[in-house]
Amino acid sequence: MANEGVMNAWLYGTDCKSDLSKPARPLHIVLLGAPGIGKGTQAEYLSKKYGAVQLSTGDVFRAAKNTPEESLSPAMREAMVAMKAGKLVSDDTVINLVRERKNCLSSGYGFLLDGFPRTVHQAEALKEILVDLNIKLDAVLNYVLDTEEVVKRLSGRRTCKQCKGTAHIIFNPPKVEGVCDKCGGELFQREDDQPDAIRVRLKTYEESTAPLADYYEKEGLLLTITADGTPDEVFHKTEALLKQRLGL
Ligand code: AP5
Ligand code: MG
Fold it and tell me: 5, 24, 60, 161: which has the fewest C-beta neighbours closer than 10 Å?
């Protein structure tokens, strides 16, 4: 069951509370990988199995879109523009946003950081935040796949307006066209899943985020997984690696 309490605190910056029982071994994991590779999909599986909460910076920005324009801070307004174009939001904005939500990192349920860090500067900031919280990362899951396959996944993705779950028009089509299988909400195509924005996102990934694999390799945390196959198959590979590395 998704930990709604911690997830809502992350999305809306509210108090971080939950009544769910805490896992005996909370996992602290970073998910790395190109846009559309399936980080969100795998985070859902990991969360179900290990109880850790998916904390996505992209989801925070998308949630802020529902905030009335006049209530948005200047930094958040700038973030919206960058995101729509497929560019990265400034490091300062993202790092401040995560600092403001650091209680969600130390909730006791563990976390699956999805989309943060995305630059070496952000990785350094995360390191400092975790030292303050006395938390050690368990692993960094680095998903890799051919660019062509990634583009197919991204361009066919549909996202639920209500529960934020995803479907894919070819690989995981909804039972009723345009309707989310999980909650009955309306499925839509994210504006940054349009061809122009996809190209910018993939280029930005190669330039700014791919170098993080080396960074975490040096830290001895990197687990690289080829993300081909069905979501179930990718999860089995992930589980096997976590078992081998962490003895789960
Ligand atoms: P964010 O929301 O993080 O987007 P992203 O990294 O581009 O990743 P996606 O969510 O698009 O893809 P995913 O890997 O989660 O794939 P999914 O599981 O949905 O960030 C959005 C924007 O916010 C950024 O561009 C930036 O502007 C800003 N931002 C956020 N964080 C930032 C930061 N730290 N610094 C600066 N800016 C930041 O899967 C994709 C599709 O494929 C789905 O349809 C799914 O059903 C399908 N699928 C999944 N797995 C498989 C499989 N194994 N086989 C077939 N299909 C599959
Ligand atoms: Mg995602």
Answer: 24
